[in-house]
Every structure is written in structure tokens, then in C-alpha cells.
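Run folding on both entries below.
>entry_1
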Amino acid sequence: MNKAELAKVALDLRSAMESRGDSIDVQYLLEDQRFMRMVEDAIHERINEPVEPGFGRWMVESDIRSVKEVSANLSKFYLLLIGDDY
């Protein structure tokens, strides 16, 4: 697991989400305490082993793909969390 890369992607994701809070799907993520805790843990390199983040299905069912910068960073974040590279 590349903790430094995960931290960078998590920072980029948080920044992208904060700049696109007008999207209902982005707002959903910003209000999801479990998700935001995962982002913060990644930023501070507190995630030490791969985890199943639990939002893979939501990514497919939501319209988050219409918010390109958030969607790209979210996909990278997901892959790094589960221990894959992007």
C-alpha cells in the first residue's frame, strides 16, 4: 500500500469535493461521516492496510461521474484503498 500516494490522492479528492459542493452527489459524500473520516485518515497516513471502503456500488449508481474531477480522484482513491494501483 502506497500511503504517500493515497494521502496525495485524498488531498486532491477533498479539494475537488470542496470546490464542487454544488453537486448533490458531492454533497452526499461531504456529509458522509464514515467516508470523510476515511479521507482524513488517508491524508494523515493512518491507513496501514487495504480496506473495502464500501462505496463502490454507490459510485456506479450515483451521477458522480458527471463531476469529472471528483469522479477521477474518487476512482483513484478507491483503487488505492483496496490495495490496487491506478
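>entry_2
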Amino acid sequence: MSASPGEMLPATRATDWTRRPAKTAAAVFLLCATLGALASSLGHQKIVRSGPPRSALPDGRIDLNSANAAELEALPRIGPALAERIVEHREQFGGFRRIEDLDRVQGIGERTIEQLRPFVRIDEEADSGGD
């Protein structure tokens, strides 16, 4: 079957989508979709980690003198090792009297204390336990 000049055969028309621009567009689309899904999942993890912790205190802050290590890990910039050091320090030396007393815990400085300040408090009843 021969075609006249300017006329396409049905087989050529059926494979027209496989031309290079179409392949490039499909590859770019798949790449963008994959990167978007990856960014979305990473962003979700960050939001969950950086949000204020849930607490039994009415104002939503965590009491440094009664929180366990898992509750402390919900705080920004506090990982498992630092949460354990906070609990160990509290058990060894007694409760914290001021939020600034956190600087006695190895790995916590002024900058971290300022970032934690909106999320923590010292329960007045627990701080009379000792130095």
C-alpha cells in the first residue's frame, strides 16, 4: 500500500506518540511526580517533629520535672540521647528550679534553652524537691 506525498500511513500515525519530544515530556513528568512525592513525605516528617508536644498540662507545655524521655523527645532539638541526659540529670540532682537550669545538662546551651522556652515549664510543686 503506497501513500501519496503528504499522506501518512495508519501504522506511522499509531506510533507517532513515541517521538522524542513525547518521551522527554513523559520522563520530565515522572521525575517531577517522584520528586514531589519525596518532598511531600519529607516535609510531613519535619512538621510532625517540629510541632509543639502534646502534654497533660493545660497550657500545652511540658513540665521539665515530670516528663519522661519520650515526652522530652517531642521537643524541638531534643533527640533520644539528650532526653536521657535531661532525665538522668534530674534524677541525680533533683528537679529543675528554672528553665535556665537546663544549661547544666551536657549538650544544652543558651540557644537551645531559648528555642525550648515556649514549649516547657517548671511545675511549682515539683521544683521544691532539692538542688
